[in-house]
Amino acid sequence: MTGTVPAATIDAPPCCRFCAAPLTQKFADLGLSPLSNRNLKSDEIASEQRYPLIARVCGVCLLVQVDDAVPPGEIFSDYDYFSSFAVSWVAHAKRYADAMIARFDLGTTSRVVEIASNDGYLLQHFRDAGIPVLGVDPAANVAAAAIAHGIPTEVAFFGVETARTLATRGFSADLMAANNVLAHVPDTRDFVGGFAVLLKPEGVATFEFPHILRQIEGLQFDTIYHEHYFYLSLHAVEQIFASQGLRVFDVEELSTHGGSLRLFACHEAAAHTPTARLDAVRAAERTARLDTVEGYVGFAGRIDAVRREFNQWLAEARAAGKLVAAYGAAAKGNTFLNFCGVKHPGIAAAFDRNPAKQGKLTPGSHIPIRSPDEIASLRPDYLLILPWNLADEIRTTIDMQPWGGQFVVAVPHTRVLV
């Protein structure tokens, strides 16, 4: 039998990790769930742990967060996610590097530091332009991949102490990048405070994260998992930054991850001028009432409907003798499968390009993870695309026409793609 956290942990009254106010308003309750990036070997099933996965909204600062968090060292020290396996994400990183080099006139005397640098997917583009780089990542296995690729990388959790150490070694930054990591660090004051330490007086830090406004609109509950401690609005993030002497001066709205923000931050006294785009996003959040608790009410009921719709579709497909497989052993897919209660053999296999995942089982649902090269031999009638944000990329790389297979996505509702 798989384990769960002790009852005392479950019953502990949660408080906001930023402002310490009691968290009394639920945003979504996804039940007990395993770590969504912890793929299993077959002999690890019996010892698999499940933890409460409940997101709440703070009534004071409006920061949405999960409670009963797993210690970060248990999650990130060894990690099966390698950014370079997502072709579109590497291309996104290249566009970012080109834009930042041009906008901030970066050159051989500049320094770019990326936090949560993974396997060097982003910093390689700055390095290739002759700009000194440094990555910081706590996962030793992905950092080793970056180092092997010629990207200097510190294996460490980032915060004020790490930033001070790097600053004394001369690593102060003209540009700092933090893509999809701001939500991953429970001590958000210490994490953001590290940027204030390492950033040069006129330096710029950029942060990309899924925008909770788009998450609510698109019913993207599958982006909730233990590794994501926070679900971020501009409204909440600006309060966090201000507490550490940083301010946002620009924001871009991106299509990545179902709708993301890229914030540009600097020291409070820096010369960077606020833009009209910043005012526009602030206004959009006010219109959606994300500056009030009421803006977050009702999400839980809407995602229950997504679960019912998918389970009905899967039951009908199975009853008709159809073989259903999945593509992408991604964290969001694992949240989705566990919330829906789907297990192997209801879904016969999950295909993923990452060799580190192949030969393992998906957490909770225990679906065998196989190489995409095996799709043609299995010949599924339906291939459920779990990382729906990459659906266009995936559909162009897999040909199921020879046997009439079809692609399916299930968020925000279940539909067969044509």
Low-confidence stretches: 5-10
The CATH topology annotation of the largest domain reads as: Rossmann fold
The main sheet orders its strands as 7-6-5-8-9-12-11
Estimate the helix proportion, in percent.
Answer: 25-40%
Q: How large is the share of residues in beta strands? A: 15-25%
| Rg estimate, integer Å | 21 Å
Shape: globular
Query: Class by helix and strand content?
Result: alpha/beta
| Total E-strand runs | 18
CATH homologous superfamily designation of the largest domain: Vaccinia Virus protein VP39
User: What is the CATH architecture descriptor of the largest domain?
Assistant: 3-Layer(aba) Sandwich
CATH class of the largest domain: Alpha Beta
Specify the number of helices.
14
In total, the number of domains comes to: 2
Q: Tell me about the biggest sheet?
A: 7 strands, mixed
Distance between the termini: 41 Å
Mean pLDDT rating: 92
Describe this structure in words.
The protein is an alpha/beta fold. The protein folds into two domains: 214 residues, Vaccinia Virus protein VP39 (Rossmann fold), CATH 3.40.50; 117 residues, Rossmann fold (3-Layer(aba) Sandwich). The strands form three sheets. The protein has a seven-stranded mixed sheet, sandwiched between helices. About 1% of the residues have low confidence.
